[in-house]
Design brief:
alpha+beta; Threonyl-tRNA Synthetase, Chain A, domain 2; about 400 residues; disordered N terminus; binds zinc ion; 9 helices; six-stranded antiparallel beta barrel; 4 domains; Elongation Factor Tu (Ef-tu), domain 3
């Protein structure tokens, strides 16, 4: 089950003929992905931005950010390493302390962080290898950060496809297969089939998971698939004509499932039902809520009807203050009902003095111009909104609405 390749950094980058000898860093992570501490010599240290320093060593076990994967973090002789980058073969460690050129130092990578990246990354290899061999799709984008792991495939996978691949990946994990990382001689390399985004020259590192994947890749991987623990697909969405799949492996997957289990437990408590009935309970609640909103609206309308009946018919300008949350349709209906009886300006303010109001004002008298009233609300109360000479609507911030209504009724 050989397949094409995903990872575009399978080419050895650490040696660079055009750079001086001081920047040639020995990449210890190629020799041993499990190396947690190492001794090295400081080749250069320059002050970077924000008081940080850029440190180059003669050798390092810190994997730099590349190919979509975030870098290792850790310490170098007490200095914190927050990021590691590689450019033109130069590996730079960002530290919070200055280190002395020529000093022997001890580097220590944050192993929990590194091992988690190894789990996610190796899980991704198996997933992409299976997607490629079963569906012929390539992984055309990969992102591995502390918060997410995503792969972009140039073809569509259905929910059933995703479940099938997820199960197949986990079977490969439980088979506890050895993960082989090697730099084959050119004549052997030429005979191999492996996933690759681009033509590679020079030393090419091939990572093979027998039966599942073969891929040029420079990153650290677990030694056997069983160390991945398990893989969980978190989401799959359409993306650029294909799909973007989010996965989690090992401890990250366990933490995700623990959080989901916590949400389910809270919901079963709130709904006093079993976890298998959560969805039907929420649907029922939603339908009840919709029906109650309708009943509430009907009751409000009736109540407003009684209120309108009690207003002196001879009053020209009539303004009402209503509770917040009155829906716009009911506000409009109320204003229309008022203008049928009262020939001046009629309006409704819905809201609360502490949070503000929305309002609708109208008149049926063609000789009156509502825009003057709207301008007054804008100038004196900072109201925002617009309308015509016959109808206006808008909103205003916290205000003593009783005084606004007195002003409007005497306008
Ligand atoms: Zn890899």
């Amino acid at each position: 089950m050989q397949s094409l390749f995903l990872w575009d950094c399978g080419q050895r980058q650490g040696k660079c003929d055009t750079m001086s000898s001081m920047v040639k860093t020995e990449e210890l992570y190629y020799q041993d992905a499990y190396l947690k501490e190492f001794e090295a010599e400081v080749l250069s240290c320059s002050e970077g931005r924000d008081g940080s320093f850029l440190v180059v060593l003669d050798r390092t076990a810190f994997f730099p950010e590349q190919g979509g994967q975030s870098s290792d973090i850790g310490t170098i002789s007490g200095a914190c390493v927050s990021h590691v980058s590689i450019k033109d073969g130069v590996i730079s460690h960002v530290t919070d302390k200055e280190l002395t050129v020529g000093d022997k130092v001890t580097g220590a990578i944050d192993w929990n962080h590194r091992f988690s990246n190894m789990q996610q990354h190796t899980g991704e290899h198996i997933f992409s290898g299976i997607v490629n061999s079963r569906y012929g799709y390539d992984n055309v984008g990969f992102h591995l950060s502390d918060s997410e792991v995503t792969m972009d495939y140039n073809g569509v996978l259905t929910d059933d496809d995703i479940r099938d691949v997820e199960m197949a990946v986990n079977k490969a994990i439980w088979e506890n297969i050895e993960v082989k990382c090697e730099f084959p001689a050119k004549e052997i390399l030429d005979t191999l089939q492996y996933r690759s985004k681009k033509e590679l020259t020079g030393d090419v590192r091939i990572v093979t998971i027998p039966g599942y994947d073969s891929c040029a890749c420079c990153a650290p991987h677990v030694a056997r698939t069983g160390e991945i623990g398990f893989l969980k697909v978190v989401s799959c969405q359409n993306y650029k004509g294909g799909v973007r799949v989010s996965i989690l492996c090992g401890k990250r997957a366990l933490e995700y499932i623990s959080a989901q289990t916590g949400v389910v437990a809270e919901l079963t408590g709130l709904l006093t039902t079993g976890s298998d009935k959560i969805v039907s309970s929420v649907k029922k609640l939603s339908e009840e809520n919709y029906a109650l909103k309708g009943e509430l609206s009907d009751c409000r309308e009736k109540l407003i009807g009684y209120e309108l009946d009690s207003i002196d018919e001879n009053k020209e300008n009539v303004f009402l203050k209503k509770e917040s949350g009155l829906d716009s349709n009911l506000m409009r209906k109320t204003v229309n009902a008022l203008t049928e009886v009262h020939k001046g300006f009629c309006g409704v303010f819905s809201g609360d003095d502490s949070i503000g109001y929305k309002y609708i004002i109208a008149t049926r008298d063609g000789n009156r111009d509502l825009r003057a009233l709207q301008n007054m609300l804008h100038d004196e109360y900072g109201a925002k909104g617009g309308g015509s000479s016959a109808m206006a609507q808008g909103s205003m911030g916290p205000v003593d609405v009783a005084s606004v209504i007195i002003k409007c009724e005497s306008f």
